[in-house]
Amino acid sequence: MSSIEKIDAVIVGGGLAGLAAAYRLSASGRQVILLERGDAPGSKNVSGGRIYVDPIRRYVPEIVKEAPFERHVVKEMLVVLTDTGSVLLEHGNERWRQEPYMSHTVLRARFDSWFADRVAEKGCFVIPKRRVDDLLWEDGRVAGVRAGGEEIPAHVVIAADGALSFMAEKAGLRARRTPRDYAVAIKEVYKLDPKIIEDRFGLSPNEGAACLFMGAVTRGMFGGGFLYTNKDSLSVGLVVGIDALMKEGGAIESHRLMEAFVARPEVERWVRGGELKEYSAHVISEAGIQGVHKLCTGGMLVAGDAAGLALNLGLTVRGMEFAIASGVMAAEVADAAIAEADTSGQFLSLYEEKLKESFVLRDMETFRRSREVLENPRLFTVYPKFLCELFESLFTVGSEPKAPLYRTAMEKARKYVLKWDGFKDFLSFRRM
Ligand SMILES: Cc1cc2nc3c(=O)[nH]c(=O)nc-3n(C[C@H](O)[C@H](O)[C@H](O)COP(=O)(O)OP(=O)(O)OC[C@H]3O[C@@H](n4cnc5c(N)ncnc54)[C@H](O)[C@@H]3O)c2cc1C
Fold this sequence. Notes:
alpha/beta; binds flavin-adenine dinucleotide; 34% helix
């Protein structure tokens, strides 16, 4: 161990969890270094992305108030697709048009770098282009990090290094993961005139839309597509379960799925004329609470995606507000531990208690079995077919006399839904 004096805290990763932790600790006057392997905070982050701000307002009020978010979301859309048709459900809501807004679209490169400036203003050393390679240990406890051949001893390390967290793994804080626990996500950003975005989506200036796609876009595999309106761009992407892709034995490549997705008329009409500015890919944790393991050990806490704190319910994708809230809670406990000169695993386990009492683990616990429900392939094949065929029949007027609408609907329901499998699915939905 180096003889250099210990600083209060080292934070690994400059995503939202790391930045939130650094912000809270620096605001308390702690000496903090944040190390980010990317060119700048935000440069390596991939998010859909829409952030729900109601849950985090109390943790970082000034950040939520002043952040350079893109648009507040006033319109939710769900597109269910088969190979040849689609059904679009749209929900608008006056409440979402009023402050305080529930959720905003966000571009991470912009938001994270702005957040990093606020963190630096609080006195934290934010060091980009510095990858942490290893942990330092002292008497069986984490005692700092090794980065680029340099040792940085610290009273507390907060690992916020994202979904594949090597820091958590090195500290033995990671649940055993399988391909079933992850999805691969591809995202593109298309630049488009704000007025065109507003006209196409029926929005007023600053208002945004969030759109999810399910069904044929993933060829029946677990996953779906997304589209979010930013100020002057659209974020468009596709998420597919890695396990489901592997079962196809390499027959389906995710980038080809993405090409086909953007070429679908239901997507193309929105993206049309846009200039592709960004392409990125990332993994996303789909394990839910089963992927949350131990969250701390002597000298170290884990926050955000690194701790497995992410929740996909099909209709909502949440990770960013979990990252921010867990980062702040990790920092609060680290601050108290430093003040008490007790960074033992037992003291730091207060963090787990805090998370359990907060929306983070309560929501994850409530939706403990959501993955089992969402993995059902019928959700991506049978139900989209049912909806599309039902609407097609109801709206079709052909040369033959038309059957009564109720009979038409029942025929389709009997074909797809009113079966033993449908009954089992119905029972399984109680898990959500
Ligand atoms: C395509 C996609 C769409 C998503 N959509 C949404 C959405 O709409 N809403 C939502 O709430 N969530 C969404 N998520 C999830 C959300 O992006 C994450 O939950 C969130 O970014 C987690 O933040 P984090 O700070 O924990 O991790 P990250 O944002 O991944 O940050 C980790 C940081 O650590 C750095 N790092 C890693 N290893 C090291 C190292 N050894 N040394 C130094 N630095 C290191 C990385 O470069 C990175 O900057 C989406 C994710 C994906 C992939």
